[in-house]
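Marked as duplicate of an earlier ticket. Keeping the data here for the record.
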Amino acid sequence: MSTILPLKVVSFTLNGRRVELTDPSPNTSLNEWIRSQYGLSGTKRMCGEGGCGCCVVSATKTDLLSNEQVTLAINSCLCPLYSINGWSITTVEGIGSSKKGFHPVQKRIAEYNGTQCGYCTPGMVMSMYSLLQKIPEPTKQIVEDNFDGNICRCTGYRPILDAMNPLQLIQMN
């Protein structure tokens, strides 16, 4: 039986910047690596099991069946760093900030008070951002279903779902 070894060099883009890592540890998750980078603490870590969604980032990669680029919301705590070779990763800092301006999803979640403690917010934002990359005009049901991997303990979800009203988000873009 042969052993599959991780790549010696992993290259990807992070928030539009090219990154090359030599011999990344097979024990390092994408989440651990992102959080170790200066200024990228928006991607949170809580459960470490992919159940809470606070670690969600947007990943764009080539689909092996269709050979087309697809964008997915992924739990960075479950994603080994060595597995993202050739991918494009976007964190909450990569879509907007107070310095460069906020993305419409970030604006709406703040305007609708969907950020009570703020811990789950980056994951919620990135889940919605990724959904809009895949389905630019989702229905309310698709939006609601999209958050099934995100847990919020503070707001009760109503302000978050109100903020993510698909018709109003589309008009903001």
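See parent ticket for discussion. The helical segments are 30-35, 92-95, 104-111, 121-134, 140-146, 158-163, 166-172.
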